[in-house]
Amino acid sequence: MTWRKVCARWLGFLLFGILLLAGIAHAQGDPLPSWNDGPAKQAIVQFVKDVTTAGGPKYVRPEERIAVFDNDGTLWSEQPIYFQVAFAVDRVKAMAPRHPEWKTKQPFKAALEGDMKTLVASGEKGLVQLMMATHAGMTTEEFETIVKDWLAAARHPRFKRSYIDLVYQPMLELLAYLRANGFKTYVVSGGGIEFMRPWTEKVYGIPPEQVVGSSIKVKFELRDGKPVLIRLPEIDFIDDKAGKPVGIHKFIGRRPIAAFGNSDGDLQMLQWTTGGAGRRFGLIVHHTDGDREWAYDRQSSIGRLDKALDEARAKGWTVVDMKRDWRRVFPFEKP
Amino acid sequence: MTWRKVCARWLGFLLFGILLLAGIAHAQGDPLPSWNDGPAKQAIVQFVKDVTTAGGPKYVRPEERIAVFDNDGTLWSEQPIYFQVAFAVDRVKAMAPRHPEWKTKQPFKAALEGDMKTLVASGEKGLVQLMMATHAGMTTEEFETIVKDWLAAARHPRFKRSYIDLVYQPMLELLAYLRANGFKTYVVSGGGIEFMRPWTEKVYGIPPEQVVGSSIKVKFELRDGKPVLIRLPEIDFIDDKAGKPVGIHKFIGRRPIAAFGNSDGDLQMLQWTTGGAGRRFGLIVHHTDGDREWAYDRQSSIGRLDKALDEARAKGWTVVDMKRDWRRVFPFEKP
Q1: How is B145-175 classified by DSSP, letter by letter?
Q2: Which residues, listed in sequence order, are joined to residue A69 by a DSSP beta bridge?
Q3: Contact, A280 vs A317, CB < 8 A?
Q4: Residue A25: what pLDDT?
Q5: Model pTM score
Q6: What pLDDT does A23 receive?
Q7: What are the tens digits of pLDDT across the range B269-284?
Q8: Looking at the complex, does the CB of residue A301 fall below 8 Å from at least one CB of chain B?
Q9: Directed axis angle between helix A83-95 and helix A123-135, to 10°?
Q10: In chain B, pLDDT over 70 holds for what percent of residues?
Q11: A218 in B contact zone (CB under 8 Å)
Q12: Does B207 touch chain A (CB under 8 A)?
């Protein structure tokens, strides 16, 4: 082969590589393909452009680009009951042989009979009883295995799919889009922190150390010289409502510049995030699509959106109309 | 120019680039120049090699490369009193005009008179009183400013330098070395989380969200419509001894593979870290250098190292002999 041919071949390879990369970049195109064009999508894109434009008046350095996401109703569905309650009910059923007294004792009786109405009516007190009975009394590693096994086996009553299939495709795209723009994404949920950590990395790309949630106490012990952490039936922290800014401060130690929620439980997180100096972004997912998902807001006992909806309008937070703004809701729908 | 010449020139550029990169890599040379060659340094380098060798039997994927560092006595000095106690004493002095009762009330009287012996003798109860009086009652942002102002003004009694000058050069190199090898580095300290977060990023390269520590409760409030977090005089969490594995589990949600401490307060963190499966690393800094720093261990009321020193020997954790292993202690010493 002549020098000319060798050289031409190598330069050819190089050119091919450049074109390939350009092609990939072009094919990426719209980073939010499941979002219909409209004010919500435009507001997101404008915000990201503002805080990433170096030298611009609204620039935020990457270290400060913290975005916090509620989980239930914001990243995945929460109907007909919070998925963690479905988990607790399944645990009650699995543990029932060792607890004959549950047959006659509420809220366990309701859980065993699948009587969700009575269960929901048992309120926070009943829910806490259910959680303590099913979420404590084992090591942290044992609990992680229980959660993973449940997620692999359990099916959602309406969609007959694993609960982790019921995540919102537009929000997955939004998480990836923010991270591609230098954001650190966090879950900040009223749900149990150890119920989420086993799967958030796989499903959302959010590692365990970026999950904030409610927790029970744990205790360090040496068992036959082997260190373990035991889960205790005692509430440590409730990461909901006014607890969300507290949880953010405790775990992250910086004020986020963007917050995403769907209910009144997220109101204070949105106030805290958008109340700081500089460019800020608040967004609420409004469940308006009873066909593809669910439609509920001011009257719902789960994920009630009332005060936060009014405040969103008053403060100019972005409100996503799920029916109008989302081309696709779940990843399993055809694009 | 002929094709041959064009090609030769481009290949020449390429070769030059490769040599340049190789040169940079070589010039970097020893990543731990302040560590004398010896078993401690060798153990660190071997550990890092083991967990980063792809395909090797001890390989750990980057996501799991979590390293936790105690702060007082491990990353910076802790004599003659914990630096946060020096901060609290200075705060008592600054706040004294508004608290005439402190002139006769312990432990405030001792703090005002600089009577460290009485102060230390007041024990945990006295210390907590001091902390609550000086660390609570303001917003989180106000407290951050107070800490920063103090660090800028206060001088260590022996070295007549800012307290953040008294960090250990070998440990700064170790932090950077681990991060360059894909580790995520955390502070896990018995000290106050909000006392550390304002400066750990600048001094250690550790961002606020990677700082775990003791905390008091905070409360979310709207003040004239503006959201604030108020620091309350109530203990939330003590991140010491058996609290350290609990704090690690709470904040990080993964078990670290490497832990670095210097006292019995770090024993359970070392047990928890090294008790997991796969390659693990535990290290204890033994203060043996009264000339350049301080020499203390089993009898010290501050940073007592007794049980953990015995267990280190029994379990094969690396023990750093500061006098022998560290070529340089503080960054301000001549290299």
Answers
A1: HHHHHHHHH---TTT-S-GGG-B-HHHHHHH
A2: A187, A260
A3: no
A4: 47
A5: 0.91
A6: 47
A7: 999 999 999 999 999 9
A8: no
A9: 60
A10: 92
A11: yes
A12: yes
AA identity, residue B166:
L
Q: What does DSSP assign to residue B96?
A: G
Beta strands A258-261 and A281-286 are: parallel
Cα A263 from Cα A189, distance rounded (Å): 11
pLDDT over threshold 80, residue A8: no
- Cα→Cα distances A174→A48, A60, B243, Å: 11, 18, 37
Task: Output DSSP code: residue A35.
Answer: B
Burial degree of B223 (CB within 10 A; 0-12, 13-18, 19+) = exposed
Chain-chain contact of A211 with B268 (C-beta, under 8 angstroms) = no
Give the per-residue pLDDT at B259.
98
CA B289 to centroid of chain Cα atoms: 19
Nearest to B229 among A193, A211, A249 (CB): A249
Evaluate whether B144 touches B228 at the Cβ level (below 8 Å).
no
Mutation for testing the A interface, residue in B201, B218, B249 having most A CBs under 10 Å: B249
Structure tokens at B306: 């007794």
Whether residue B223 lies within 8 A of chain A, CB to CB, comes out as no
Helix axes A3-28, B3-28, angle to 10 degrees: 60
Element (H, E) at B323: helix B322-325
- Cβ contact B252–A219 (<8 Å): no
A chain contacts of residue B226, beta-carbon cutoff 8 Å: 275
Q: Please state, in angstroms and rounded to a whole number, the distance separating the CA atoms of residues A145 and A153.
A: 12
Q: What's the CA gap between A329 and A327, in Å, rounded? A: 7
Query: One-letter amino acid identity for B167?
Result: V
